[in-house]
């Protein structure tokens, strides 16, 4: 019976955190999958943990930034031979306007980035279209 329980999709969150200038908070992944690629902070929702609490925990663990969680942007599925994740992507804002990210947990770097700076970085697959949705929902202008 236990083996079938390990074969269910896992719930995860991704968080598009925007500062007052409209920059987005990204991390460079320090571990597989996606080591060396830039993405939003996020990760698995723990058993018994509310989704909004998972958003706050993951962003704090990976960047040191405390956030206020906003609306759901979209959901995506990631599947391969070994994993099946359903990822809920949210918009958030930092609690402190002067929040400076510090890489932690499985992030090797954490930075506030402008739209132009994103063009020069290796990003996780599908990040830019969801970022555009999040930016529109957060009511930040492009750029």
How are the secondary structure elements laid out?
Layout: H1 2-5, E1 10-17, E2 24-29, E3 38-39, E4 42-44, H2 51-63, E5 67-79, E6 84-94, E7 107-113, H3 115-118, H4 127-138
Parallel strand pairs: 1-6
Antiparallel strand pairs: 1-4, 2-3, 2-7, 5-6
What does this protein structure show overall?
- This protein is an alpha+beta fold and 143 residues long.
- The chain has one domain: Nucleoside Triphosphate Pyrophosphohydrolase (Alpha-Beta Complex).
- It has helices at 2-5, 51-63, 115-118, 127-138, and strands spanning 10-17, 24-29, 38-39, 42-44, 67-79, 84-94, 107-113.
- A hairpin with an 8-residue loop joins strand 2 and strand 3.
- The mean pLDDT is 91.
Keywords:
about 140 residues, alpha+beta, Nucleoside Triphosphate Pyrophosphohydrolase, four-stranded mixed β-sheet, three-stranded antiparallel β-sheet, about 35% strand
Entry summary:
With 143 residues, the chain is of the alpha+beta class. The chain contains 4 helices and 7 strands; from the N terminus they run αββββαβββαα.
């Amino acid at each position: 019976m236990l083996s079938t329980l390990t074969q269910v999709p896992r719930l995860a969150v991704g968080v598009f955190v925007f500062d007052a200038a409209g920059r987005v908070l990204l991390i460079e992944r320090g571990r597989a999958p996606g080591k060396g690629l830039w993405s939003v902070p996020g990760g698995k929702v723990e058993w018994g943990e509310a989704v909004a609490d998972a958003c706050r925990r993951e962003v704090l663990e990976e960047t040191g930034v405390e956030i206020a969680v906003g609306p759901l942007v979209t959901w995506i599925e990631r599947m391969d031979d070994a994993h099946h994740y359903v990822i809920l992507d949210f918009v958030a804002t930092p609690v402190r306007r002067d929040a400076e990210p510090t890489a932690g947990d499985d992030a090797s770097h954490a930075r506030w980035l402008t739209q132009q700076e994103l063009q020069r970085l290796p990003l996780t697959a599908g990040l830019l279209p969801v970022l555009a949705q999040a930016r529109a929902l957060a009511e930040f202008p492009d750029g």
